[in-house]
Design goal:
little secondary structure, elongated, about 475 residues, 8 helices
Amino acid sequence: SLPSAVTDTLTVEWSISPHYGVKTGQGATSYCRVCHLPHSADTTSSMLRGDEVRAGEAGACLRCHDGSGALANVASGPSDSFGLVSGHTVEGAIAATGTDLTNTCGDCHHLHANAASQSALRPKVITGDVIGTVTVDPGANGWCLACHDAQGSWYVQKYRAPYPARAVATRDGQGYPLFGSFPGPAVYRDPGANEHAAIPSSTEFGLAQGDCLFCHAAHRGVSRYDGLRAVYRPTDASTLVDDQQTGAYAALCFICHGGTRPSYLATLPIDIKRYVTSGSRNAGHRIITEGAAMPFGSPLPCYDCHNPHGSGASAFGLEVLTATGPNTPIVVGDVPGEIVMGAGATPHDVRNFCLSCHTTSDTGAGWDGSAMAPVEAGARVEGVDRVSFEGVLRLPEHESHTEADARACTQCHGGSYETIDSFNVHNPNPGQPDGTATCDTCHEAAPPAPSTSGEPGGEPETGAVTGESSVPSGTGEQAP
């Protein structure tokens, strides 16, 4: 029969790939042949052209993305490249260290994507035996959170085990939490639980608000942990001096909290680095106990108190990983109300935060997230005993260190960030009121020394010292 009348017009648009028109000088005779070699390819997968070292998809991609034909050198570049120490690994073609959801470049990148709208990533469907079928939105961390989801699907698929809880996070020999530190997309995306979610978008760097790439490299990063853009780690003997003097152990945090405002922030965050590197005896809330998990004098790692991905409801991402007994790790701060800090914190709240690691002088009790409770022998934080006085986490005998006392720890140890000389939890005052009163505000003076003449108020005996506190040496030490 005759064709029916035309009732509508169908328009088909052609998506121009970012690879269209690429010329590399590597023997390509047409645009498609930059990547494909139909008659003599070294792989049966999509007839891809490899390079002299790598076969398959990675070989085809890294022929140009090694700095020779593309702007991004993800093969061996100084940032965000597979030549660095940690992050994603394209296991299917570059290394044979197990499999997860990043086995090939095409697992994240659509190689023929529309260059006009999204040159690297575009909506795609991920199908896996663990993650299921998920349509990924490339914007607003969609690609990252597709695998780093509430179940930790990337981990489940690679290790065939549930993603570890924060309290039982997998740790390396120095105590860094390798797996188990991510609280999930709901917490990460909530600015009330994670202040990093409010980092504004940056057209300069092409990043969305709260983008994971403010801290993480998409491929691999320079830190030995987590594909991070800068160093974030514990201290060891080889790094101790540098960590004390420059804060190298927290270089990642000091990108923003180091006294210099990044261009993508409208205001300068609190400068924490100046307190860590002040040179004072407690700068960086130092380890002051021999035999701890880190050397004597080590600044306390940021991750011991903060989760950079946010916590259940605590300000500043506060999550204190502590212990109530031997091999009984708990996390304080991942549930609303466990740690209440910030402008509205009461003296009771401040004490609970400090006593999540420290214990009271009289009862040896600590805050377990819901109540003050006795801490069992063998409980340790960073290898420091919470129960014995020798461990320093057990506070020295003094009225202000007892369980019944209601004063905020900041009254003596400082809670100000106003000046470079201020004392606060990152550089605690070792026991004197913070410039507001004399020592006897908190500490009772020693009784007068006996008079040589036997009369009250006479001259002290030779060698006697008056006016010293009766509190044992070391009162108020704050670092473990």
